[in-house]
Amino acid sequence: MQKKLTNQLIIMTDEHTRKVLRCYGNTIVQTPNLDQLAARGTVFSNAYCNVPICVPSRASFATGQYAHTSGHWDNATPYTGKPESWGHALQKSGIQVGSIGKLHYRNSEDAVGLDFQTLPMHVVNGVGDVLGCVREPLPRRWKALSMAEDIGPGETSYNVYDRQVASEAVKWIKGTATSTKPWTLFVSLVAPHFPLIAPAEFYELYENLKLMPSKAKPEPEHPWHEAMRNCQLMDNFTPEKTRIALASYYGLVSFIDELIGKILAAVKSLELEGSTQIIYTSDHGDNIGERDLWGKSNFFEESIGIPLIIAGPDVPVGKVCKTPVSLIDIYPTILETANLSVESRKPGKSLTKIANEQDNNGRVIFAEYHAMGSKSGGFMIRKGRWKYVHYVGMRAQLFDLESDPEEMSDLGESHEFSDITQELEGELRLICNPETVDKIAKSDQMEIIELNGGIEAVVKKGGFGATPPPGVNPEYASIKS
């Protein structure tokens, strides 16, 4: 007998590192609603995004494919509906599927596998951040300096937008609950993405705690990170600004926790918890000031690590699953929950299956980066206790996450661990040829640059930092003399 179909609610935030969530061990942050979700489901303690930047990460989430396979390199290569998403599969089976909030796809007209898009946020002008395609030589992104300026208590258009998204989600759930047919809803909030300005009542929770990063900038710094730092300008963070920015980040996490609580309360009030699978995750993490870095765009745990919680039918209650997982695993999770078959060529695996199995610490997780600030393609392999990071044309890095969870000791050039480095490079090359992928990415990006007037014109126009919510114009910062 085929099991009864289950409703599915997928909630995604933006730039939420799993290191700032109480159910992941952070004893400072207040996240009661997500903690309650975790308590009645399974927490994946080693969850990762597949690209640590918004647009290609969301494309991997939608398609269940790696970015180099689908050609989604950066924030100027948005998802357009190809390859098909989990939404397309649900539509073909007759299951109602829609989104509320940020998508970061190309536009609202593309057939991306959604019956409706409420309050959608897409890339700017259907094009996105073309400046991020310029990688040889790397430009200076002056807009990044605003990350240290736009901080503290207050109200942003993002805060307003997130409240609207949560309100629409509650309204939709309450209006659809009487349906006898299963539904799938994707709700996407922006916080805790910068600007790091939090509503006052949430900022005040952390204002006097004097939060500060624990890790200083390494000396000497790896050349890949050094090149990114010279592109993504963040050298205007003082200790006081860092303290305020961290209090704001924590405040934004508590802010979205409250909004998520309202959405979860709507599900509970209609007695849908027993028939609804709920997933919470983020598109990538945030460096939160560690190593004097903010935002994402690298393979440190703060940036590449994400929260991933699943609760509902057939999901173990109160479990912490140590098996490494990533966003590409959500595609097969959604399809299998809907009793649909998953293509064998998809690299992911159902989170429900993983949660019900014994922990498999040896599972290989892959991530890559080809976007703003990267001089060459970066690739990550996580296997067991080891994290291997491969940079085209530069030395590799190796970290022992068991003995060195904060990644303070780079073993990449140690002869003692050369066999581990070679083994993990071999795992990488089973997935892709990094040199070939790097060339294809840069070639595709150059085509985008030429369509937008060439390198000089793109650099002169500058970058706008973060994609604004609907109805708000982007603010560009161009060349400084």
Structural notes for this entry:
- With 481 residues, the protein is α/β, with parallel strands linked by helices.
- It is built from 14 helices and 16 strands.
- An eight-stranded mixed beta sheet has the order 5-4-7-1-9-10-2-11, with helices on both faces.
- The longest helix is centred in the middle third of the chain and has 31 residues, at 239-269.
Structural class based on helices, strands and sheet pairing? alpha/beta
Average pLDDT reading: 96
- The succession of helices and strands, N to C, reads EHEEHHHEEEHEEHHHEHEEEHHEEEEHHH
Shape call:
globular
Strand content: 15-25%
The stretches of 5 or more residues where confidence is low (pLDDT under 50) are: none
Task: Give me the number of helical elements.
Answer: 14
Specify the biggest β-sheet.
8 strands, mixed
Question: Could you give the count of β-strands?
Answer: 16
Q: Residue share in helices?
A: 25-40%
Give the C-alpha Rg.
Answer: 21 Å
Strand order of the largest sheet: 5-4-7-1-9-10-2-11
End-to-end separation: 70 Å
